[in-house]
Structure formats: structure tokens, C-alpha cells
Design goal:
This protein has 241 residues and is of the alpha+beta class. The chain contains 4 helices and 10 strands; from the N terminus they run ααββββββββαββα. Strand 5 and strand 6 form a beta hairpin.
């Protein structure tokens, strides 16, 4: 019985008969945002260059639900409502990083340095890898959902170039619909996908309101570096992406 899947319609009917409000109970779960992992945008890097951009919703008990949602055309459009520069140094097999930092400030019980700029492990090519962690709202299957996208070290330059263009245009990041598209890169024996960043117009008033609500709701999530932030290929080894 442990691995038995659940049919949502049957549960909904049973709850209704017993006098429970399904939507209200689900709302109670969602308000405890800090105890849950948001769906994550991930990339499956392919040796043939046909990389796969998808959303990882996490495991569930539903018999008909897939953990992965394909992103059409390998391009995702969303409103970025928060961003962070994160770093983490991992020991092999560890559940938590040896040292980690958000926006250059190390945290945890015993950080290896008072600042990432002063730490030997943060140099280019060292094992402490930087990422740009983005929190965004995107329309998925007709619903606007919050997502996390931890850009790899090789994609950070595209994100920074995007921000520079916005600055020259006198526009904040949240004001535009940002596009993320896979870009095939090959160097030596490695082939991987970087993320090219652009815009698809100005954000609507409705999306801006939702983005502000999302920033407030998920503030606690932004304070912690999760192992899921560093579970992509190359995060804890010598691969370039």
C-alpha cells in the first residue's frame, strides 16, 4: 500500500461528502511556503545539442501527474520578482553545503570566510560555484505559477547583459516579461546549454500585482540555499555548466 497512487477525483468527492472544502484545505498548505520547494526550471543537457528545458514539479502521489512539464520551444517567459547571487561549497555525498552564501555574504554555523571576495574557494574554476537564483511567475497550462530558476555559472553572463540593457532603458527587472531560451554551446569534449535572456514586452498590471504578492509570500524561501539549487549536472564536479 505504501506506493499506491491516489486518484484526485475520488479524494475530492470523499472530502465533499464529509463536508470538507478542498480549495480551503489546499490554501492552508500553500501558505506555509517556507516548508515547500517551489517548482524548478531545469535543463537536461544533451550530447547531440538538442537540450531539454522543463519544469520539475517534484514528486507527488497522483497516478496521472508527471513530475516534468515540457517548456514549448525550449523558451520560457515570465516575470522575475526576485533574484539572488548564491554560492555553495559541497563535500561529496553531503546533504548540506560545507559553506554557502547569498549575495556574497556567507551564512551557516562556520563560514569559511567573512566575505566571498576574500575566500580562496570562490576564485574562478574553484569548487565553490556561483549561480544566479531567479524567482519568477510564469503561465503554465493556463495557470500563473511561481518558479525557481538557478542559472548556471556559464549563463550568468547572459543574465548580467540583460540587466545592463534594462538599466540603460531605465526599466527594473520586474517591469518586463523576460524570456529564457536554451543556447547550444560546444567546447572541446563538452557540449551543454546556456540560457539566453531577452524580453517579450512590458509586464501587465495584473502580473505586476501578482509579482508583488509573490515576493512578499515567498520571502522566507529566499533566505535559504537548498540542495535542489545545486542538483543540476555539473554543479558539484568539473563540468563547465
Amino acid at each position: 500500500m505504501e506506493n499506491q497512487m491516489i486518484e484526485t477525483d475520488a479524494v475530492k468527492q470523499a472530502l465533499s461528502v464529509a463536508g470538507w472544502d478542498l480549495d480551503k484545505e489546499l490554501e492552508g498548505l500553500s501558505t506555509a511556503a517556507s516548508n515547500f520547494e517551489l517548482p524548478r526550471v531545469r535543463i537536461e543537457h544533451k550530447k547531440n545539442g538538442k537540450h531539454h528545458l522543463y519544469i520539475d514539479t517534484g514528486e507527488s502521489y497522483l497516478d496521472s501527474a508527471s513530475q516534468e512539464i515540457d517548456v514549448a520551444g525550449n523558451m520560457l517567459t515570465g516575470i522575475v520578482f526576485a533574484e539572488q547571487g548564491i554560492r555553495a561549497l559541497w563535500e561529496e555525498g553531503a546533504e548540506v553545503p560545507l559553506c554557502s552564501a547569498i549575495d556574497g555574504v556567507p551564512g551557516g554555523k562556520e563560514p569559511l570566510a567573512i566575505s566571498c571576495n576574500l575566500c580562496e574557494h570562490s576564485a574562478i574554476g574553484k569548487s565553490c560555484k556561483p549561480k544566479a537564483r531567479l524567482f519568477l511567475l510564469a503561465e503554465i497550462d493556463g495557470d500563473v505559477r511561481p518558479l525557481v530558476f538557478a542559472l548556471s555559472p556559464t549563463s550568468i553572463k547572459h543574465w548580467n547583459a540583460h540587466k545592463k540593457k534594462l538599466q540603460r532603458s531605465n526599466l527594473p527587472v520586474v517591469a518586463v516579461s523576460t524570456t529564457f531560451k536554451t543556447l547550444d554551446v560546444k567546447k572541446g569534449t563538452y557540449r551543454w546549454a546556456e540560457v539566453k535572456v531577452g524580453i517579450d514586452g512590458i509586464a501587465t498590471k495584473e502580473m505586476l500585482i501578482l509579482a508583488k504578492q509573490a515576493r512578499d509570500q515567498f520571502e522566507e524561501v529566499t533566505r535559504v540555499i537548498s540542495s535542489h539549487d545545486y542538483s543540476d549536472p555539473g554543479d558539484q564536479n568539473v563540468e563547465p555548466f
